[in-house]
């Protein structure tokens, strides 16, 4: 057994060394939902988690009467009756844990120690970045752990003794909402842990190196202090996703910190990768259940409202350290922690499933979409099947909330986005960063502004009726026809390719810099306004090229006196 673990330690170390330069998985599932049936919820043996979450009690210990036990059912195919049913996978699991602890830096050791000792909810405050200090002040947040000791804690050392934040503070409703999720009497993993009874990794192999400050505490832990699933990770996702609901402006940063808490549990030697993957699933399902519960709806409104006052989001500390300021770093870290580099050893052909009620997790992040559309976003950004632990009956394990916060991964027959800028926030302005595939069409209406930043390949075309559609990549418009009936199509890059036909109506505007280029592969029908912005002026510059064209722009603005545009057979050019 130990030889196998050492082998996996070496292999896991190799995987970890590659994480900085590669993504170990596909970006999205291959196709969009084509009918509403594809988006229907799949009932598990216990029912639906959001309906049955209050059955996670000590008297319920089976896959049919306890939703947490049912959600974690796949693990019984790896570990059953206190022994390995899949020794290869479990050997890899411990090997990965060992490799992570052996490569742990001093900074990671300190962070994982603080994560271990602090209140589970306090751990997520750092995800607020420049708003963290305002939260600490206005939520009266406290911790009694600020540094790591140079010698091990005594075996009976307690966890944090202070109240993490106050429900009577200016941010009281937000604190109370987090408490409602992360301290629900129906949350927690103690029951399922004692059903599974999987041993902690540091007790399976001495190759797993525990943080020295915790060595006596961990050595003295009870024999039934089990690994799977991770309770700290569960609480992290409950806290992080609840905060993300109230503070969607930090959605991806908060869930990245949630995933980092899980990683911290491995760094400390406390948990295995499979255990923190399971914790993510339980925490996500519990959060969705809490946010779907009718009795919490008023509190949710209050929490969101108070978060968007001077007590939090209107008080930004520009000098504050933000560990989650870099989008790509967050994305790479979150994606790796979805699977920890495990291979797809299960059935890889399962269609994506979206659990009942999961759409509530995106309600404030994508407020301009309706519930069905948010389910479609979850469907089209979900993970492929076949990864260990993640193929639960409802689909909680395959939800990729980081990608879902970037909008659709693929389009249905038609997706209409109606953004009302007067409502502010993401209703006024948003950015879809995913690479959007599919056969559907994107229709943009309403007064808000939507940016497309992906390498898109959807083929159904793009229709702009109102507001602004901003293009940040060459292929932002996919492969179909483009029509501007109203609103403004804006180039945020110097080159955009339209692979189909282009048509602009009288009420439409096309906005680009004077050194940008729109390449229309087929026919262009021109009308409306061409608005040029700052850029170099060079006689003969081709602003727009096409196979053929009809009509001309009725108005051209943004050129100095003496400059104009001319129309040739295949181009619109600058001329003086």
From TrEMBL:
Residues 175-291 form the Phosphatidic acid phosphatase type 2/haloperoxidase domain. SMART domains: acidPPc (SM00014). The keyword Transcription does not apply. It comes from the Bacteria. Pfam families: PAP2 (PF01569), PATR (PF12951). Residues 1-32 form the signal peptide. SUPFAM superfamilies: Acid phosphatase/Vanadium-dependent haloperoxidase, Pectin lyase-like. Keywords: Signal. InterPro entries: Autotrns_rpt, PAP2/HPO, PAP2/HPO_sf, Pectin_lyase_fold/virulence. This is Phospholipid phosphatase. It comes from Levilactobacillus koreensis. The lineage of its organism: Bacteria, Bacillati, Bacillota, Bacilli, Lactobacillales.
């Amino acid at each position: 057994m130990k030889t196998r673990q050492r082998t996996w330690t070496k292999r896991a170390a190799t995987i970890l060394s590659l994480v900085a330069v590669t993504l170990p998985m596909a970006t999205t599932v291959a196709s969009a939902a084509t009918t509403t049936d594809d988006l229907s919820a799949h009932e598990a043996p216990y029912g639906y988690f959001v309906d049955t979450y209050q059955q996670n009690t000590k008297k319920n210990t089976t896959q049919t009467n306890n939703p947490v036990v049912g959600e974690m059912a796949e693990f019984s195919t790896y570990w059953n009756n206190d022994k390995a049913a899949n020794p290869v996978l479990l050997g890899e699991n411990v090997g990965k844990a060992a490799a992570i602890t052996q490569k742990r830096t001093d900074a990671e050791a300190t962070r994982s120690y603080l994560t271990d000792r602090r209140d589970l909810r306090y751990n997520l405050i750092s995800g607020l970045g420049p708003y963290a200090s305002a939260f600490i002040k206005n939520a009266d947040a406290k911790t009694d752990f600020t540094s790591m000791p140079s010698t091990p804690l005594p075996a009976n050392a307690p966890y944090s003794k202070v109240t993490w934040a106050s429900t009577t503070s200016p941010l009281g409703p937000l604190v109370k909402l987090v408490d409602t999720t992360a301290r629900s009497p129906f949350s927690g993993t103690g029951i399922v842990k004692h059903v599974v009874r999987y041993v902690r990794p540091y007790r399976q192999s001495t190759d797993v190196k525990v943080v020295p400050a915790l060595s006596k505490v961990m050595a003295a832990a009870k024999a039934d202090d089990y690994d799977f699933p991770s309770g700290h990770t569960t609480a992290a996702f409950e806290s992080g996703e609840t905060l993300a609901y109230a503070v969607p402006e930090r959605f991806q940063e908060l869930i990245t910190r949630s995933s980092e808490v899980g990683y911290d549990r491995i760094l400390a030697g406390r948990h295995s990768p499979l255990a923190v993957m399971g914790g993510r699933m339980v925490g996500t399902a519990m959060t969705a259940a809490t946010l779907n519960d009718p009795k919490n709806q008023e509190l949710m409104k209050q929490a969101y409202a108070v978060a968007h006052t001077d007590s939090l989001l209107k008080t930004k500390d520009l000098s504050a350290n933000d560990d989650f300021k870099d989008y790509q770093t967050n994305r790479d870290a979150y994606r790796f922690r979805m699977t920890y580099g495990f291979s797809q050893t299960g059935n890889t052909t399962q269609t994506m499933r979206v659990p009942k009620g999961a759409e509530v997790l995106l309600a404030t992040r994508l407020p301009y979409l309706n519930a069905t559309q948010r389910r479609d976003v979850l469907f089209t950004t979900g993970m492929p099947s076949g990864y260990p632990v993640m193929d639960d009956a409802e689909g909680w394990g395959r939800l990729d909330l980081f990608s879902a916060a970037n909008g659709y991964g693929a389009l249905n027959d038609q997706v209409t986005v109606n953004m009302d800028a007067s409502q502010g926030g993401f209703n006024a302005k948003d950015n879809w960063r995913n690479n959007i595939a599919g056969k559907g069409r994107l229709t943009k209406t309403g007064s808000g502004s939507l940016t497309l930043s992906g390498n898109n390949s959807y083929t159904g075309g793009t229709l702009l009726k109102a507001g602004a559609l901003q293009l940040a990549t060459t292929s932002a418009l996919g492969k179909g026809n483009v029509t501007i009936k109203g609103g403004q199509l804006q180039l945020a890059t110097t080159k955009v390719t339209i692979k189909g036909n282009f048509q602009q109506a009288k009420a439409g505007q096309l906005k680009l810099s004077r050194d940008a280029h729109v390449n229309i592969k087929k026919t262009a029908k021109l009308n409306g306004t061409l608005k040029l912005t700052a850029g170099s002026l060079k006689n003969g510059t081709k602003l727009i090229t096409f196979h053929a064209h009809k009509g001309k722009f009725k108005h051209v603005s943004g050129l100095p006196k003496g400059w104009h545009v001319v129309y040739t057979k295949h181009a619109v050019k600058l001329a003086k």
